Amino acid sequence: MTSNEILLALGIGVLSGTVAALCGVGGGVVMVPAFVLLLGMQQKNAVATSLAVIIPTAIMATVQNAKNGFLSGAWKFALVTAISSSLLAYFGADWLKRLSNESLTRIFGVVLLVIGARMLLQGKA
After folding, report:
1. Which of 95, 120, 123, 124 has a CA positioned 20 to 30 A from the CA of residue 113?
2. Angle, CA of 51, 111 and 20, to the nearest 5°
């Protein structure tokens, strides 16, 4: 890694950590495009790197959110969702091998657009 790449990675980390803490998106919404556009990663590598970064990010934010009382009464939902999400993510990681970087980029973009548009039109969080 060059010093420029280290600075870019630090900046990506700061921005994605902030977005993760405020929006609950795990930072992948910021990291994947930033890794591809700023660091020149292939889409598959950007997805895998983002997921590796999300683990410590999610742990730190969860500890703080629990201390702030935001998980009170929601642990049951978190547990059920974590189990189903983890199982599907395990198999989804194999699907990653089968799709091209171009297809993954398009899927990622469509998901962001659809969810973003829906949230903007509903005006709800």
Report:
1. 95
2. 45
